[in-house]
Amino acid sequence: MNRQADPWRGPKDSIGAPGDPRGEGTALHSDAPRTEARPIDLDAVIGPYLGALTVLLAVLVVALLALVIVLWQRTGRLSARLHGMTRGSDERSLEAILEAHLERVFAVSRSVDALGTRTQGLERDTRHAVQRVGMVRFNPFEDTGGNQSFALALLDLDGNGVILSSLHARTGTRVYGKAVTAGRADGAVSDEEAAALKAALEPRPVARSSEPVPRS
Predict the structure, then answer these.
(1) Distance from CA of residue 198 to its chain's centroid?
(2) Domain segments of the chain as ranges
(3) Do 72 and 80 contact (CB within 8 A), yes or no?
(4) What gap in Å lies between CA 162 and CA 111, rounded to an integer?
């Protein structure tokens, strides 16, 4: 008995022969409609935004130009600084130049330390040098004039020293000396000697030079 032909079955839409485990030759018809891929029209997509994209690209170009100018200026300043660092040096390597500069810095540091040590020694030694001086001139006798007599106080930083007194007369000149410890004489002093000692012990302002210190 002949089977009626199925209008939806094609020539290859037949079930495979019996005994065929793979079922090759079987093709089942799909009822889903087939859709064809349509090409994308870029002009239609980009066209409405072409003006905005042009403005955006122009802004980006200007920003890139500004960035290039800034980088060029920074590169110029860096080159100038590098030239200033390497000025007067025969070394071509930046590393060698930096090592030379560091060696100079270390040498200067060692010199400063040595100067500090010497300065401390000088301050210790000059502490006992004569730094305070007070002098009073007077006339002890009525028959002499011109205030040829004087009382002179010579003290160090701690107030230790001597007071020298000179009495001038027509017949001769006499000189007396008295020791001073911590600002006090070891004996009785006259009014002129006390005035000279007071003048020597008065604190004096430290003179400051207005001229700049020359640098080598």
Answers:
(1) 48
(2) 50-84, 94-125, 132-201
(3) no
(4) 39
Collapsing DSSP to helix, strand or coil, 180 comes out as strand
Cβ-contact 127, 157 below 8 angstroms: yes
Q: Which of 179, 148, 175 is nearest to 163 (CA)?
A: 179
Helices marked H in 130-212 — which ranges?
A: 191-201
Q: What is the largest CA-CA distance in the chain?
A: 181
172 dihedral zone (left: phi>0; alpha: psi -120 to 50; beta)? left
pLDDT tens over the chain, length 216 residues = 444 444 444 444 444 445 554 444 444 455 555 666 667 777 777 777 788 888 999 999 999 999 999 999 999 998 888 777 677 666 566 777 788 888 999 999 999 999 999 999 888 888 889 989 999 999 887 766 678 899 999 999 889 999 999 998 888 889 999 999 998 998 899 999 999 999 999 887 655 544 544 444
DSSP 8-state assignment for residue 47: G
The two structure tokens encoding residue 198 = 């007071």
Q: Two tokens at 170? A: 């027509």
| Cβ 163 vs Cβ 149: under 8 Å | no
